[in-house]
Automatic annotation (TrEMBL):
The keyword Magnesium is assigned to this record: no
Keywords: Aminotransferase, Pyridoxal phosphate, Transferase
Protein name: Aspartate aminotransferase family protein
Pfam families found in the cross-reference section: Aminotran_3 (PF00202)
An annotated Gene Ontology molecular function: transaminase activity
Superkingdom of origin organism: Bacteria
InterPro entries on file: Aminotrans_3 (IPR005814), Aminotrans_3_PPA_site (IPR049704), PyrdxlP-dep_Trfase (IPR015424), PyrdxlP-dep_Trfase_major (IPR015421), PyrdxlP-dep_Trfase_small (IPR015422)
Amino acid sequence: RRPDAAAHDALVALDRAHLVHPVAPWRLHEERGPAVLSSGRGVWLTDDRGHELLDAFAGLWCVNVGYGQESVVQAAAQQMRRLPYATGYFHFSSEPAIRLAAKLVEITPASLTRAYLTLGGSDSVDAAVRFIVQYYNNTGRPQKKHFISLQRGYHGSSSTGAGLTALPVFHRGFDLPLPTQHYIESPYAYRHAQGNDPQALIASSVAALRAKVAELGADRVAAFFCEPIQGSGGVIVPPKGWLKAMADAARELDILFVVDEVITGFGRTGPMFACDAEGVEPDLMTLAKGLTAGYVPLGATMLSEKVYAGIADGAPAGTAIGHGATYSAHPVGAAVALEVLRLYEEGGILAHGEQVAPRFAQGLEALRAHPLVGDARHRGLLGALELVSDKASKRGFDASLGLADRIFNIGYRNGLVFRSFGDHILGFAPALTITEPELDQVFLRLRKTLDEVL
Ligand code: PLP
């Protein structure tokens, strides 16, 4: 089909006039208009002008199984035909929701025994916060209301979650953070005084958590939230052992340890969950993205038996725990998730991702020598390049230069999609189905893009 220029112009005009975009500069977007994506297959996208793009970011680090997985489409269609909707409210349930909850309990760390199915990552974080508040209220410690998270962390953009997020753009104009939200240093090796010594960096993070809890009072702190690798903060990969050390410290400090695996879950960093690599058993875990590989919206908040029982047994007998949404435990989302999980395991997609990850690492490492690249970091198929104007001083770029926008546009022209954070970090998270020749294409196009920026 020949792309129709008039149809494209008409669509763009409608977008500018009517569609409010998430996380976009609204007025600037109206001026520029959107890139309209129209189809996808494997790791390849086509826009409505027929331009072909290699997607090195799996949509928004979610399409882990690639585009066009027919069995996932069939799972959704069959469930829609049989029963498109069933509430999870009250005592209703549906087979896909039941099977998915059991499957999630089976594959997540052993501490997690209950699954609450949500609408996506922000909803998972929001539910986690509300469950934690209930847990302490119902177990006789209502003063434990303060939450600690990491600087540069991202935990979605619900009214509360956006305050656990520590990126200024999500606070500006929204009266955040709340007085109960606090941050500690990020394990950002490239820009940390102890960055060259992994054990010192871990010790510094543990000390920062202890100090913050001491400052607030352990009897007032509810939980510590963290991503095993900070995604939207710039793909900050902490040293191996960091997550376990933070989990141990939280336990010792008598605060709940919440791992946000919305990005790192479902094979993104190699194993099914980043927690698995270090034997971490959190009190709560938040999930989304790779759970349905982006085919439909669905997330999960996983709870330990201690937290579940604290809420359930502490509530007045017979009263409802007043949290839920019409689309909680959506049967179509659950049916899709079950098929996506089958593809990761029986379909060999997780194993394939682990197999090609060294090629991804090599591609990023080779770019360290590029004059614009200050740092390359990666684990599994999650990675970033940090660009600097001066390698010795690690000086970044003045935001007024609009470098991120320029790089994105040059990349797009070169048929490559990735993500820019701030003005100088480029993020990569291809589908776990990407082949080695396709990875070589990613790095050819990326090098060409960086050379054109110079
Ligand atoms: N938590 C983390 C670590 C995320 O990266 C994201 C989204 O990028 C979220 C939560 C929010 O998820 P969602 O965008 O599905 O609401």
